Amino acid sequence: MHVSLRDARPADLAEITDIYADSVLNGTASYELSPPDELEMAERFAAIIAKGYPYIVAEDAEGTLVGYAYVSAFRTRPAYRWLVEDSIYLARSARGKGIGKALLAELLRRATELGFRQMVAVIGGASPASIALHQALGFELSGTLKGTGFKHGRWLDTVLMQIALGDGTASEPDDQIYPGTLYAV
Ligand SMILES: CC(C)(COP(=O)(O)OP(=O)(O)OC[C@H]1O[C@@H](n2cnc3c(N)ncnc32)[C@H](O)[C@@H]1OP(=O)(O)O)[C@@H](O)C(=O)NCCC(=O)NCCS
Q1: Whose CA is nearest to atom 48 of ligand 1?
Q2: Domain, as residue range, for 43
Q3: Which of 64, 66, 87, 119 could form a disulfide with 94 if both were Cys (CB 3.0 to 4.6 A apart)?
Q4: Which helix (H) or strand (E) holds 180?
């Protein structure tokens, strides 16, 4: 499947809401139990964009949106601000075709360019597909948190994986790029 990647726009939110809703209802990547509506997804989108984080989509040759991905704060206390968490969701029919890899590679490129130093994957339900995806792009296993959630009648583990971006910890970050004041405590 040929896809192109581009910045997400407000007009994409109906399709993004549908893709996420399927994962919420039928999967364990997200620990939400009821799918948020389009208005809520629009508020989340605006909050992510407002902080300058990348939010991108993949669309097929017909212009149908088949997946989306973004980075956001792992935690909001300001010393964490050089660490971002990635999120990637694909329509069912688009999985297993390299699109997750393309989206994650683009997030890595953009987050590095923006000056972030680490990216973490918080893999709900220890999904083998998500672990394989992150491994394929160089993430290393940080550890497993056991029994972190209960969904679809079973306890879920969360796998944490991490990759360094740019200089990683080899130099101090440039405070001018990402002032701590941008972040809520
Ligand atoms: C997880 C997800 C984003 C992966 O994207 P994808 O496009 O299906 O994955 P890709 O086709 O790019 O494959 C990436 C790697 O993972 C492997 N992989 C993909 N699906 C797999 C599966 N079900 N089991 C094992 N490995 C799998 C591929 O072989 C590939 O490895 P390689 O490059 O070494 O060959 C996608 O399946 C998805 O949206 N799942 C539901 C939501 C979700 O779990 N999101 C992640 C939140 S952390």
Answers
A1: 123
A2: 3-169
A3: 66
A4: none
Q: How far is the CA of 100 from the centre of ligand 1 (A)?
A: 6
Classify residue 22: in a domain, yes or no: yes
Q: Is residue 68 situated within a structural domain?
A: yes
Q: Please state the three-class secondary structure of 138-178 as a single string.
A: CCEEEEEEEEEEEECCEEEEEEEEEEECCCCCCCCCCCCCC
Question: What tens digit of pLDDT does each residue of 60-89 get?
Answer: 999 999 999 999 999 988 899 999 999 999
Please count the structural domains in the chain.
1
CA 142–ligand 1 middle distance (angstroms) = 19
Ligand 1 pocket test: pick from 16, 19, 119, 133 the residue with the most ligand atoms within 8 Å of its Cβ: 133
Specify if 182 maps to a domain.
Answer: no
The CATH number of whichever domain residue 35 belongs to comes to 3.40.630.30
